[in-house]
Structure formats: C-alpha cells, structure tokens
Amino acid sequence: MQRQRVQQSVDAAKLQGHTICNDVDKWLTMVDHKIFEMAETKLKEAEEKANERCLIGLCPNFKSRYLLSKTAEKEAYAIVQLLEKGRFDSVSYRPAPKPANIEDININIWSFVEQLYLHIFSIYLLAIFGYLFIWLLPNF
C-alpha cells in the first residue's frame, strides 16, 4: 500500500519533469526485491509443507515450525524497517535551470532594437507622407 503511494508520487513527479531522489529509487527497488523474495519463500514453504510428513501427517513437525517462525520473524522485522525507510517528505526535486546563453540574449536584444527602429521609421514616413498629402491636397 505504501509502495503504491510512493510510486504514484514518483509517477506524478516524472510527469511534471521533476528529478526523482536517489533514496526514493533505491527504496522502491529494495521493496520490489523484498516482495520477490517473499513470493519465492512462500512458494518454497508450500512445497516443503506438501512434502513433509511426520507419522503420516498425525503429529506436527516442531523443528520445521520453529525454523519457519524464526524466518517469519526476520522477514517481519525487515518489512518494518522498509516501511520506516519509506516515509519521505518529498520524492522529487526540480532540476536546476539551465544557465542563460549570452549569445541568445544578444540576439534577442538586437532583434528588439531592429523592430523598434523599423517601427519608428515607419511612423516617421507616415508623418512625412501625411504632411505632403495635406500640403498637396488644396492645390488640386
């Protein structure tokens, strides 16, 4: 359940373009590994249980139960440790912004100056032609 919540947070962070923290990735791989180990041990236990027979199944096998309880205790402790490590404040961080390229800034400034010059020149030409038009109009 907690792994799914962390995975959902990781997926949401990746969609937003954030970088995932290394400890979160490491924790997710550890949990996946632990889940795989638990599945293997459950399968082995089921096979051993099917093969075990003590007096034709009339009495329990105390040694195997004891060993099973010890391994279950170790597994439970490992899972508790993983769950404690899985409490993250945040799972990602924003990547550092790329530094601005000076050449791009210069090109942008010069294109702005060029557009400003063309705009002022067009206003100047309109004023001159407008003045000539008004000056020539009464002569017709």
Could you explain how this protein is built, in words?
The chain crosses the membrane at residues 116-137. The protein is mostly helical. It is rod-shaped. The longest helix has 35 residues, at 102-136. It is built from four helices and two strands. Strands 1-2 form a two-stranded antiparallel ribbon.
Keywords:
140 residues, 4 helices, two-stranded antiparallel sheet, single chain, mainly alpha, rod-shaped
What percentage of amino acids are in beta strands? under 5%
Radius of gyration: 37 Å
Mean pLDDT: 75
**Uncertain ranges:** none
Shape: rod-shaped
Tally of alpha and pi helices: 4
Please write the string of helix (H) and strand (E) elements: HEHHEH
Distance between the termini: 90 Å
What is the number of domains? 2
| Biggest pleated-sheet summary | 2 strands, antiparallel
Helix content: over 70%
Structural class: mainly alpha
Keywords: Membrane, Transmembrane, Transmembrane helix
Transmembrane segments: 116-137
Topology, please?
Layout: H1 2-15, E1 19-20, H2 22-51, H3 62-85, E2 92-93, H4 102-136
Antiparallel strand pairs: 1-2
Helix pairs in contact: 2-3
